[in-house]
Amino acid sequence: MNKEKTFYVTTPIYYPSDRLHIGHAYTTVAADSITRFKKMKGFDTMFLTGSDEHGQKIERKAKQAGQEPEEYVDQIVKTFKELWQALGIEYDYFIRTTEDRHQKVVQKIFKKLYDNGDIYKGHYEGWYCTPDEAFWTDRQVGKEKLCPDCGRPVEWVEEESYFFKMGKYAQRLLDHIDQHPEFIQPESRRNEMINFIKQGLDDLSVSRTTFDWGVPVPIDNDHVIYVWIDALSNYITAIGYLTDQDNFKHYWPADIHLVGKDILRFHSIIWPIILMALDLPLPKQVFGHGWLLSETGKMSKSRGNVVDPIQLIEDFGIDPIRYYLLREVLFGTDGTYSTEALIQRINSDLANDLGNLLNRTVSMVEQYFAKVVPEPDQLKEVDQDLINTGLKTAKEVESYLSNLKFTHALESLWNFVRRSNKYIDQTEPWILGRDKDNNKDKEKRLKTVLYNLLEALRMIAVMLKPFMVKAPSEIGKQIGDQSIVENADWEDLSWGKLSSKIKVQKSEPIFPRIDIREYFNKKQKKEQEKTMTNENNNNSKDNLIDFETFQKLDLRVAEIIEAERIEDSNKLIKLQVKVADDNRQLVAGIAKDYQAEELVGKKIVIVYNLKPAEIFGVKSNGMILAASNDETLTLITPENPISSGSKVK
Ligand code: MSP
Predict the structure, then answer these.
(1) CA-CA distance, 566 to 594, in Å (whole number)?
(2) Cβ(287) to ligand 1 under 6 A?
(3) How far apart are the first and last CA of the chain?
(4) What average pLDDT does the segment 325-340 reach?
(5) 270 and 134 Cβ atoms separated by less than 8 Å
(6) Whose CB has fewer CB within 10 Å in the chain, the N or C terminal residue?
(7) CB distance 14 to ligand 1 below 6 Å
(8) Rounded distance, CA 555 to CA 645, Å?
């Protein structure tokens, strides 16, 4: 395979400290989409994602969970893989930084840098942000002692440490950025990075001694390698650096590292400098996209505003979620996730524009030509315009996608969807259909119109393949040829590929409309049910009952009419009691504390709705209430006179 035709894209490797949310899915869906597109363009693609499992943060989280780090990360990494599968993410390799091959190569990288004189031993005193695993200077954390990136409190660290001579490479990096404007994207972020470098790069502390959960420094077992050196190296260890050089050379340098803006600094400063020190080429591009915010700000577990992608997929399906992520937020800027906006997109773009186009077209072919795809005849201007728009769209989508402009690409594609709907209004096939049986020209015209619509749908389905995973095949199936869509490459975006004579196959709408009100009502009801179940579960844990349970008890005041010791038992007394008009017999274990005679006439409290039982061969219908401790037992009686049968509440 020609090296020119390889494409290597990476997402960040995620910390298994929590479950992933929709913000994380944003990057991975984008990487998946660009990879699918490159495959359709005939590239030999490599798509890497994974998990960043070492470091102080993970070690602490595991401890909090009462687990060993290995056990802790294993279980979370499993949920990562499940999420990627649910989102149709087709990565080629999932790297875990705990895997043996990676760890060994990270040690070799460290050793190489040490041997070259780029790493030396020293002493670190400064601030550390554990959630970000980042070092900061006094000036950077300010008076408040907060991480300048995430705003959380930093910790003071004083320890022996190895240092990496970053400053030595600063000018070379600036020159590289200058000569390769595409290296850091988008442009606004490039300037930020240039300013950062120009302020001067301190030597970077690249080892820690105060915890163990990391790759040991090969020349000094008291140290573990700084987690960012370990993590960034994944991009080359995964493809065989120092273990499978052929594969490594085939894919390296990477075409794109896709990262969030918060970690752009690590990728566009530390990482290139490591590569320079290793004498390796730099990645062609580092793209720092914006954040997907929730309506109440940045998503974080502690704020309780994270959006769970698995729940969204369950509610709306995989393709609408992928579409929304790529369509709604300009890749590069921040955007806000909102369920209303998602439903809006589903209803207007997917159900209305695309769903109706498919539905109307296939229904007409079914109705007018007994499902058979007709053969087109002569083209009119309006047909030519539709065709030209389709071909132009293919070019536009290609160009936008090549530049990671997902939103623009989908906008362009939807212009074509809408153009196709307009074509139906312009050509009025229902009028042609009315007259087709006695007018050959109209029949021919109708055939041409419907063929063009089916062909437009085929083009749309093929162009959707980078973005969606199920809908393209489904559209293919309905227009009569699933495999023509499934097997299509980008070069199949020429007009007239769909064969006539095959049969369309109408089925359920591919994107059902969502009733926004009903959706939110249902959601609310579910939430309430969940809270109630949680409350019930919590209550049983704490031995608490709720009021409803208490109300099930029917407690009544009863008057003792007769009392008699049960023979052969030194505890039991048989009582006849009156509860309003109801006379009852019950057995009570009070003989040690009460004489039978003294009980008669007393008003007591009984459980009136207890299931009858037989005690010592005697029927008992109810139970008296008494308070007892180790020494004594006393009956519960009303403080003031009250009629028997009164309810105790
Ligand atoms: N482990 C490091 C990356 C090491 S790469 C060699 C890390 N992990 S992370 O799990 O905290 O974040 C991974 C990525 O998710 C980052 O690119 C981050 O920007 C991105 N996102 C986290 N929350 C996000 C949003 N709300 N929106 C978009 N991206 C988000 O950093």
Answers:
(1) 13
(2) no
(3) 84
(4) 92
(5) no
(6) C
(7) yes
(8) 9
For tokens 């695309």, what's the residue? 354
* Distance from chain centroid for Cα 356: 29
Distance of CA 244 to the CA centre of its chain: 33
What integer is the mean pLDDT of 160-188? 96
Q: Which amino acid is at 551?
A: Q
User: Is the Cβ atom of 299 under 6 angstroms away from ligand 1?
Assistant: yes
Q: Is the pLDDT of residue 395 over 60?
A: yes
Pairing of the two strands 256-260 and 6-14: parallel
Burial profile 26-58: b = 16 or more Cβ within 10 angstroms, e = fewer: bbbbbbbbbbbbbbbbebebbbbbbbbbbbbbb
Residues 234 and 13: beta-carbon distance below 8 Å: yes
Distance 24 CA to ligand 1 centre (A): 6
Among candidate residues 104, 8, 21, the one with its CA nearest the CA of residue 49? 8
Is the pLDDT assigned to residue 581 strictly greater than 60? Answer: yes
Distance in Å, CA 12 to ligand 1 centroid: 7
Q: For residue 529, what pLDDT is reported?
A: 83
Least confident of 166-170, 513-517, 541-545, 557-561: 541-545
Nearest-CA residue for ligand 1 atom 8 is 14
Q: Output the CA 238–ligand 1 centroid distance in Å.
A: 19
The number of the ligand 1 atom at minimal distance from the alpha carbon of 298 is 26
Task: Measure 43 CA to ligand 1 centroid, in angstroms.
Answer: 27
- The predicted model scores a pTM of 0.82
pLDDT band at 3 (very low <50, low <70, confident <90, very high): low
Tell me the pLDDT of the chain averaged across its residues: 93
Query: Are the beta carbons of 438 and 465 closer than 8 angstroms?
Result: no
Q: What is the mean pLDDT of residues 579-583?
A: 90
Rg value, the chain, Cα: 36
Establish whether residue 23 lines the binding site of ligand 1, counting it when its CB lies within 6 angstroms of any ligand atom.
yes
Check: CB of residue 258 under 8 Å from CB of residue 29: no
pLDDT tens per residue, range 284-319: 999 999 999 988 788 877 677 888 899 999 999 999
Cα(565)–Cα(488) distance, integer angstroms: 93
The tokens for 430 are 């229902």
CA 16 to ligand 1 center in whole angstroms? 11
Which ligand 1 atom is nearest residue 231's CA?
A: 6
Which ligand 1 atom lies nearest to the CA of residue 17? 10
Ligand 1 atom 15 nearest Cα: 24
Q: Which of 384, 409, 408, 531 is nearest to 463 (CA)?
A: 409
According to the model, what pLDDT value does residue 539 have?
58
> For strand 44-51 and strand 6-14, is the pairing parallel, antiparallel, or unpaired?
parallel
d(CA 160, CA 165): 16
Find tokens 């590289």 and name the residue.
Answer: 176
- Give the tokens for residue 12: 């960040």
Ligand 1 centre and the CA of 581: distance in Å?
Answer: 74
What's the pLDDT score for residue 541?
Answer: 55
pLDDT at 92 over 90: yes
What value does the mean pLDDT take over residues 15-25? 91
